[in-house]
Amino acid sequence: MSHEVFNRVAEAYDAARPGYPGDLYDALADLSSVPLAGATVADVGAGTGISTRGLLDRGARVVAVDPGERMLARLVARTHSPRAVVGDGNALPLRSGSADLVCYAQAWHWLRPEESIQEALRVVRPGGAVAAWWNTLDLGAGSAGWLVAHEMRLAESCPGYWGPALPEWHMPPIAAVMAEAGLGVREAWVHWTREVGVDDFLLDLRSHSYVAAMEGDAVDRLVARLRAGLAEVFPGGRLRVPMRVYLAVAPRADG
Asked: 111 in the Ramachandran plot: left (φ > 0), alpha (ψ -120 to 50) or beta?
């Protein structure tokens, strides 16, 4: 079901989702002990190619895997010499031992935990690693009062909201699943600041599953309310959004 939702908002996802800071890729290489230049990477749940392009820019050979054909079509249209495969992360269409890294950027939580990790371990070769990361808003940053208010408005108006404004919110438990599979886990948080116009900030919101699943003109009403709140704080229409990326890396135990 997730890929059907994202297929409907592929253009918004591609146009407005944030990328990842360079420090994230540095941390990935450091914690995995796999230099990205020349590495073969399976980018599982690649979507429209945000992480694929970041890995390619650092010299990796990337195979992008995603169940959403429309999402992958956007990836292929925007990515130089892509290798893209329609496929399910719970049953990867890749040979055993064919990748140095199996990565999930903003994607692993849509998969079945134990099955997906076992598939990753099948595909990653000795000396390689499995890794996952997620961009999230940093509501604890010193300048984030406006962002807390924005997320509270979003939580009040969107029944399916799942995010840092909720006390029960947490990062997907991939570290625990990796540990249960017998892997040693290395974790890091990478802090950064996203500079973005209000239009793209709200377009990004339309690509989130809990908003994309809303019916009729409810999304337009939600976005109008959020836009009004942002205009009070940023009359010039340019935002500085405190962000952080959670990264979990598990080298193969037999590497």
From this structure: beta
Total tally of structural domains belonging to the chain: 1
Instruction: Compute the distance between CA of residue 127 and CA of residue 224 in angstroms, rounded to an integer.
Output: 50
H or E element, residue 117: helix 113-123
The residue range of the domain holding 107 is: 2-251
The pTM (predicted TM-score) of the whole model is 0.91
End-to-end alpha carbon distance in the chain: 35
Q: Which of 252, 253, 249 is nearest to 103 (CA)?
A: 249
- Residue 222 is part of a domain; what is its CATH number? 3.40.50.150
Using CA atoms, how far residue 172 sits from 82, 108, 116, 244, in Å, is 28, 8, 14, 15
Low-confidence residues in the chain, pLDDT < 50:
1, 3
The token duo for 152 is 């509270």
